Amino acid sequence: MKYKAVIFDMDGTLVNSIYALMHSVNNVLEKHGLDKINVDQCKTFVGNGIKELVRKAAGIDCPDDSILEQYYRDMIEDYSKNWDYQMYVYDGIFELLNSLSQKNIKLGVNTNKNEDIAKLIVDKYFPGYFSYLVGGRTSIPKKPDGSGAVLIADKLGVEPSQCIYIGDSNVDIQTAKNADMYAVGALWGFRSREELIRAGADAVISDPMELMKILSV
């Protein structure tokens, strides 16, 4: 089999976390007298980490703005309590993970979400499934840099070219390309088919189990 590992994005790929993210960022916006965002806005703001979500939601242009640091701290405090608010695993994900495991395909997670919260999600919803996770770390550049994905491949004992990388946004597709991995776009997440194709996805799927067809080619 050509591919020996699958690396998953988390938000919008494994779990629908949009309501938790929106809940916490709106709590921060309300606290500081700013307008709340809706779910469609939130879907376009996520993908580059929590700090970037806060920046976009608050309409702050400069990423080094001191007030952004305060908003970000408030967001982390709130989100650490509400990270699983209305969260659920997408239909078909467990069927896919079980099918991959039965074929001895190694599994990893690569997310820009703060790693401590990402680990809580994996521990709660996916115990025993994933061998290695890379979340937001100060020592590793955020996606779309491919460093995290390449580290996961190394930890799984496979070459990057032997990995399928699946995610729901242009950030994920770019990450896969930067890591020299086969890029699969997930249409059940937060972004459109057009965005995934424009980013250079090698394949786009609308149901998780479609990944098994790619694996067998």
Can you describe this structure in just a few lines?
This protein is α/β, with parallel strands linked by helices and 217 residues long. It has helices at 18-31, 39-45, 50-58, 66-82, 93-102, 115-125, 147-156, 170-178, 193-198, 211-216; strands at residues 5-8, 15-16, 88-89, 106-114, 132-136, 163-167, 182-186, 203-205. It folds into two domains: 5-16 and 87-216, HAD superfamily/HAD-like (Rossmann fold); 18-82, DNA polymerase, domain 1.
Question: What is the CATH domain class of the largest domain?
Answer: Alpha Beta
- Please tell me how large the radius of gyration is: 17 Å
Structural class: alpha/beta
Strands side by side in the biggest sheet: 5-4-1-6-7-8
Number of helices: 10
Q: Describe the largest sheet.
A: 6 strands, parallel
Please tell me the CATH architecture of the largest domain by its name.
3-Layer(aba) Sandwich
- Strand percentage: 15-25%
CATH fold-level label of the largest domain: Rossmann fold
Overall number of structural domains: 2
Task: Give the overall silhouette.
Answer: globular
Following the backbone from N to C, one meets helices and strands in this order, namely: EEHHHHEHEHEHEHEHEH
- Ranges with pLDDT <50 over ≥5 residues? none
Assigned CATH superfamily of the largest domain? HAD superfamily/HAD-like
Mean pLDDT: 96
Helix content: 40-55%
